[in-house]
Amino acid sequence: MWPEPVLGILSAAGDRVVFEDGAREVTGSAMLSMIRRIAAGLRGEGVGPGDGVILLLGVDAPAFAAIIAAFAVGARVSGVRADQLDHVAAAGVGTLIDDARVAALLHTPDEPLSAAGRPGDIARILYTSGSTGEPKGCCQTYEAMTAAWAAHPDRWPPAIRALAERMDRFLVFGSLTSQVMLEYGILALAAGGRLVVARQPAFPDAIVRHRATASVITVGKLHQLVRSLSARPPTLRALMVSGSPLDPGRLREALEALGPVVFHGYGQTETGMIAMLTPGEMLESPSSLASVGRPPAAVEVDVRDGELYVRTPAQAASYWNDPTLTAEVFVDGWVRTRDLAHLDPNGYLHLTGRARDVIIVHAELIHAGAVERALATDPAVAEAYVIGKPDPSSGEAVHAFVVAATGRTPDTTALAASVAARLGEKATPATITVIDQVPTTPAGKPDKASLAHLAPTSGSGDRARVGA
Fold first, then answer.
1. ∠ CA 354-358-362, rounded to 5°
2. Alpha-carbon span 102 to 98, nearest angstrom
3. pTM of the model
4. What sign for the dihedral angle of Cα 301, 303, 304, 308?
5. Which residue intervals make up region (Disordered) (predicted)?
6. Using 50, 70 and 90 to split pLDDT, how confident is the model at 129?
């Protein structure tokens, strides 16, 4: 049962370094000892199977040990960012464990440890970005996490095996409770590599400084990296790009600038990885650049009326305290992705749009409806409409259109500030255009496709404000 495979990897590592944080190097044996001590401390405080903990942790060896220890005692683990903490705590998912508490737990005597999770219990709650102000918690069971392939080389699909071979020094940053950082980190350990901390994760400097062979990057950051490169980082062997659709031209540009190191992944918080396109496939079949790769054999895909449904070994089972959304997304064992897609004759998966009205800015989902509602609270706005367009810096950018209330003139600068205050900077429109009326479809509904043609160019990411 999870996380027994991770404990086994660390035990087998012994004196091999598995974690590097500046001058500090931690061996497999030392990491395992930290995990046992933290787990013993948690058990001493009464934390056991089915109990909830909220992890607000940074990116260091004790944080990794605390994550694995929380799973080992069978807890329900929720990793959060600081901006999600109030919502998550109010949702009643558990008690807070931060870096200071982990430091205290490390003083507990080392005790024997075995995984205590129960198959049907929720192992972790993965929170989405919460652009609407209400983050969704995706619930994954211990049974599902045990079925995941990251810690099991014999289960690796071909694309994951090709990636794992390049993860000698996997650069980690932000928080290890992140779904992507934790799962790729475990993949690196299973492949015999180590996790290398970047406290200042600017690319390409961090890659060069830490001699990283692999890391994760968003689409916007990839564009910036390609533009800033004077030479390819000499140690880089794998760069996993995720979080936003990647234009084939941009992918080709990255491949030319960086060489055969770019892996383009597609997945969701609810599902984990659905497909991955490897650099070898890109070079052998240039037409594959328009896809997100082939789904591995362990992933089932079904396109229903143009919308993609999937089944993955480690998919979530529900949303925390949201039966309505659970019934909408988790359907008879399938996950409704709400992405529009098709499979080509060679088995490559192509994304063609989104059934849900969201914009992905710096790998975070921004719900158009939330921005529209924020804009519409201004007395000078009669109607508000929001669309997304590709952006070289952020992957996609938010563009808004407002119809003025009778006798009023909307202040676009004030509108942008209002959205930022309510929903955060990433939800702030790159442009706000005042229009006389919204174009409509033959059915009389707002025609957002037409609005997309009217949206001004946001340039290099500067916030443009457009009047009537």
1. 110
2. 6
3. 0.82
4. positive
5. 439-468
6. low
